[in-house]
Fold each of these.
Amino acid sequence: MDNRVKPHVPVLLAEVIHALAPKGGGKYIDGTVGAGGHAEALLNAAAPDGKLLGLDGDAEALRIARETLRPFGERAILIRSNFTRLEMVAAEQHWIPCDGALLDFGLSSMQLANPARGFSFQSETLDMRMDDRAELTAAEIVNTWDEAALADLIYLYGEERLARKIARLICEQRPFHSAQSLANAIERGVGRRGKIHPATRAFQALRLAVNHELENIETVLPQLERVVGPGGRVALITFHSLEDRIVKNFFKTNAAWRNLTKHPLQPTYQQTRENPRARSAKLRVAERL
Ligand SMILES: C[S@@+](CC[C@H](N)C(=O)[O-])C[C@H]1O[C@@H](n2cnc3c(N)ncnc32)[C@H](O)[C@@H]1O
C-alpha cells in the first residue's frame, strides 16, 4: 500500500464483491473501470488467478487504473473502449463466456473534479465529454441548438420543470464558453431554492446528451447475456432515476436473467457520509440463467 490520496472512492464496494462472488480461475469484466477501485477488489477476491478485463472510454481514467492494477500483472487487461463495444472487445480477448460483469455508470470523482472537463459548476470550459475523441461537446449543444430542442432536452434528460425558462435564457444570453458562466446565468434566471444548485438538472441533461449515456446503457444491456455464461452475475450501479429505470425494466422483462435484487441496494447513511458521490447510487444484481 502507498500513501497517495485515492482519487475515487468506489461505491457499494462490499456489496458489489458479495454480489459477483469472484473466485480463483474466474474471468470478469469491468466495463467502467475508472480509477480501478472495484477492479482491484475484484482481483483480490479472485486470487490467485482470477482475471479482469477492464474498459473505459476516458484515457485519463485508464492511466490511473493501469497504475492501480499494476500489481496484478497479466491478471488485468485494460482497453480503452466505449462499453457499447463490450461484446466485440470480449470476443477479441477470448473473454466469452465470462463469470461476471460490473458496470458502474456515470462519472468518476476525477472527471467531476477536473475543471478542464467542464462537468462542475466551477469549470472554465463547457466540454463534458468523457471521451475526448468524441465530437459533440456541451458548448456545441448550448450555443447552437434551437430553443425548442434545448427545452426538450432539459425536460426529458434533466427532468427539469423549468426547462422552457432555462432554454429561453440560454438562447438570449449565449454564447457560453464555460460551465461557470452557464451555471451562473441559470442561477440568476431561475433563482436558488432548496439545497441543490438550480443548474443541476440542466447540467445532467447536457452530460447525458454529450455522452449518449442513456443510449449507451440501452446498447450494452442486451450484450451482457451473450458475454456472461450461465450462473454468472452482473452488477449494475446507476446514479439517477433515468438510468435506473432502464436497468430495472431490462431485468424485469428479460428471460435470460434472474433478478437477485427486487429492491436495489443503496448505500447506508455511513457510506454516504464518507462518500457523498454515493448518495444516489443504486445497485441491481442479476444472474444469467
Ligand atoms: C463511476 S466511474 C467508475 C469508477 C470505478 N468503478 C472505480 O471503482 O474506480 C465511471 C467510469 O465509466 C466511464 N464510462 C462512462 N461511460 C462509458 C462508456 N460508455 N464507455 C466506457 N466507459 C465509460 C467513465 O469514463 C468513468 O471513468
Amino acid sequence: MPLKVGVVGLRGIGQTHCQCHSTNPLAQLVAVCDVIKQRADEMAAKHKVKAYYRLKDMLDAHPDLDIVDVCTGGYENGSWHFEPTMEALSAGKHVLCEKPLSNDIGEAREMVRFAAEKKVYLGCNLNHYFTPTAERAKKYMDEGNIGETVNLLFKVGFHGGEETYGFSKSPRFNQPYAHMKAFLTHPFSVMRYFCGDITHVQTFSTKPGFRKNKGDLLLSVNSVHVRFANDTVGYLLSHRGDAVFGLGGWWSCEVAGSRGTFCIENCIEKLTYWPAPKKGEGYGLGSAPKPEVLDTGIKDFGDTFPRRINAFLEDVTNGVPREHLRSSGRDALATLEYIFAVIESYESGGKMVRPKALPTIHGDPSVENI
Ligand SMILES: NC(=O)c1ccc[n+]([C@@H]2O[C@H](COP(=O)([O-])OP(=O)(O)OC[C@H]3O[C@@H](n4cnc5c(N)ncnc54)[C@H](O)[C@@H]3O)[C@@H](O)[C@H]2O)c1
C-alpha cells in the first residue's frame, strides 16, 4: 500500500516534491495545500488531487494521511516551517520538512523534541548526499579505502560576481545571517555524513564591496574552520554568488585519509578517488597515484530530490527505528547547531565556539533489541 502524502507550500520546491511523490510507487499524493488559492488549485488540477488553503482543513479531510511534506519557506527560507510541522506532528503524521528545519534554533529543537514525543518520523530534505557520488564515497570509507580521516575541505558557491549581482530588499534574504541559515545546512550535512559530529567551530564572515555599497545586509562569504569529534579537521568556504567558483564546480568536498582521498565535484556529477601509496611505493612532488573516477553524467542537481524523497518513503514504509531514519530532523538540527555556532563565532570576532550537543537518543524498547 503506498503511503498517502499531502504537500504544504506549493511554490517552486513544493511543486518539485509533488512531482516526486506522484511518480514514486511508494507514495500516493492525495492532497495539496497553499495559503495562496491559485497555487493550490493549479497543483491540484495538475495532479488530480484535492486542493486546500489551510493545513487544518487538509488534515481534517484526510485522517488517513500518512505523511505531510512541508515545503513552505519564509524569512531566511525557514520561518514558515515550524507552524505546519508542529500542526502535522500534533495530528500524529510523519513529516518531511524542507531545510533548514527552521531559521530559529529554539523552534528547531522543539520540532525534534516533539516528533520524538509523538513517536513519528521527522525527516528533513538534506538532499545533497543522496547521490551516486556520495554513495560511492561512503563505500570507499566503509571498505577501509580512506582509512583514518585526516582533513575535509568543502567549497560551495553560486556562480556570480559584480556584473550579475542584483540587490534584493526582500527581508527573506536581506538579513545578515540569511545565507548561513538558509544554505549552510547543506554543506554541514555532507560534512557530518562523512566525518561525524562537529565539536568546534571558528568563523570569519564578510561580503564584497559591491554588496556593501548597496547596503546589502547579507554576510555572503563564510570561512569556517571546524574540528570533528573523531579528530578530523575541516574547512568550509561558502559564498552566495560573489565570484565564479573555479576548481570543483559549484560545490566540491574533498576528504583525505590515511589510506586514500576522495573528492566529489559538482555535488552529483563526479567523484575521484586517489589511493594512498603502499609500502615501498613513493610519490615525489609532481607525481601522483592513478585515480579512479566516477563520472555519473548527471549534471542536474534536481536529480537529488527524487532520490532523497524515495529514501524517506522507503524508511517510513519499512518502519525503520526512528533513530535510523536517513536525514532525520535530528540530523538537520545538528547542522543548525553548527550554523548558530558559526553566527556566535562571527559575532564574537572569530572566537572558537562549541556547538550545543544534540539531544540524547533514548531508543525504543518496542522496536529495538539492545
Ligand atoms: N533542498 C533543496 O535543495 C532546496 C532548494 C531550494 C529551496 N529549498 C527549500 O524549500 C523551501 C521552499 O522554497 P520555495 O522557494 O518554494 O518557498 P517559498 O517561500 O517561495 O514558497 C512557499 C509557499 O508556501 C506557502 N505557505 C507558506 N506558509 C504556509 C502555510 N502555513 N500553509 C500553506 N501554505 C503556506 C506560500 O504561500 C508559498 O506558496 C524553503 O524552505 C527552501 O529553503 C530547498
